[in-house]
């Protein structure tokens, strides 16, 4: 039968993948880190027994976290990614020629190190000259920043361990101050099947800070339930009021202009969670 890895997504449900071998495993200062070579999904990054990304389906998450806010903002020049040490979001950010600087703030340097080694197609852009990598606490970096960024993307794990503070109202208020007046914020906000209460709380907290708060979805097969949500906050720009002239062709596998508009059409049970 071979070796199988199972992420227990609830007390009664999990997702399983056949593993050829473990490429690396260690307990870092912040979490348990493992890189698995899987039969179905290629190399897989696992943190605290939760799937973070795989070579086969990573493009969906990284494209949707990056391009929806970047096409919504008319001219993003300085972008911050909090978390995301695998480098996938940074790779997508750099596809926008208007971006002059992309800052990655990742608390666990080991994620960066082993992503570069075992996930080079994801992490390859981290050495780009437009990228500044800071191995430090994202919450504290936000707290020290003021009117600095055009777009801030929070690419965090689920709200456990070092990521707990990244799902708090205080963090969203700090993001509002770190953004320029017309800045845009987006975060991954888990799934509506198993984390409905988290989604509701995050949406309420973001809405207290940003007058324009919108939820959108994507299909990511190795994430719990496959239906994943993102929450965007803005003072000025509405993601569904983007001029057609704003869109330009980039190299993607999931994101398109049509997806940009369609991803905000929520299933009713998700819409009910956000009271939109």
UniProtKB/TrEMBL annotation:
This is Polyamine aminopropyltransferase. The active site is at residue 155. Keywords: Cytoplasm, Polyamine biosynthesis, Spermidine biosynthesis, Transferase. Its EC number is 2.5.1.16. Signal peptide: none annotated. Catalyzes the irreversible transfer of a propylamine group from the amino donor S-adenosylmethioninamine (decarboxy-AdoMet) to putrescine (1,4-diaminobutane) to yield spermidine. Pfam families: Spermine_synt_N, Spermine_synth. PANTHER family: SPERMIDINE SYNTHASE, SPERMIDINE/SPERMINE SYNTHASE. Residues 2-235 form the PABS domain. Gene3D superfamilies: Spermidine synthase, tetramerisation domain (2.30.140.10), Vaccinia Virus protein VP39 (3.40.50.150). Pathway: Amine and polyamine biosynthesis; spermidine biosynthesis; spermidine from putrescine: step 1/1. One of its GO terms (biological process) is spermidine biosynthetic process. Belongs to the spermidine/spermine synthase family. It comes from Halobacillus litoralis. Spermidine binds at residues 62, 86, 155-158. It comes from the Bacteria. InterPro entries: PABS, PABS_CS, SAM-dependent_MTases_sf, Spermi_synthase, Spermidine_synt_N, Spermidine_synt_N_sf. GO terms for molecular function: spermidine synthase activity. Homodimer or homotetramer. One of its GO terms (cellular component) is cytosol. S-methyl-5'-thioadenosine binds at residues 31, 106, 137-138, 162. The gene is speE.
């Amino acid at each position: 039968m071979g070796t199988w890895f199972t992420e227990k997504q609830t007390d009664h449900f999990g997702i399983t993948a056949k593993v050829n071998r473990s490429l690396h495993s260690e307990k870092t200062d912040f979490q348990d880190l493992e890189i698995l070579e899987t039969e179905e999904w290629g190399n897989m990054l696992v943190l605290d027994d939760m799937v973070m990304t795989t070579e086969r389906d990573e493009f969906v998450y990284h494209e949707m976290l990056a391009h929806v806010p970047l096409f919504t903002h008319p001219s993003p020049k300085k972008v911050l990614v909090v978390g995301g040490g695998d480098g996938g979001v940074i790779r997508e950010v750099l596809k926008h020629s208007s971006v002059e600087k992309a800052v990655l703030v990742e608390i666990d340097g080991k994620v960066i190190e082993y992503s570069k080694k075992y996930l080079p197609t994801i992490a390859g852009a981290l050495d780009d000259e437009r990228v500044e990598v800071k191995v430090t606490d994202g919450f504290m970096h936000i707290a020290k920043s003021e009117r600095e960024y055009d777009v801030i993307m929070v690419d965090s794990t689920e709200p456990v361990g070092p990521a707990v503070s990244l799902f708090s109202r205080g963090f969203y208020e700090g993001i509002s101050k770190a953004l320029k007046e017309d800045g845009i914020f987006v975060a991954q906000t888990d799934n509506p099947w198993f984390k409905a209460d988290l989604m509701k709380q995050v949406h309420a907290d973001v809405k207290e800070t940003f007058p324009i708060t919108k939820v959108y979805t994507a299909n990511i097969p190795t994430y719990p339930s496959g239906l994943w949500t993102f929450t965007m906050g803005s003072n000025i720009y509405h993601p569904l009021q983007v001029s057609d002239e704003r869109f330009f062709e980039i190299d993607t596998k999931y994101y398109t202009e049509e997806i940009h508009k369609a991803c905000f059409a929520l299933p009713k049970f998700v819409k009910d969670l956000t009271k939109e």
